[in-house]
Amino acid sequence: MAVTHLPSDAINQAFTPSPEEIAHARRVIDVFEQNPGLGTVGLDGMMLDMPHLKQARNLLDLMAQIEALEQ
Question: For the chain, which residues make up each domain, given as ranges?
Answer without folding.
Answer: 17-70
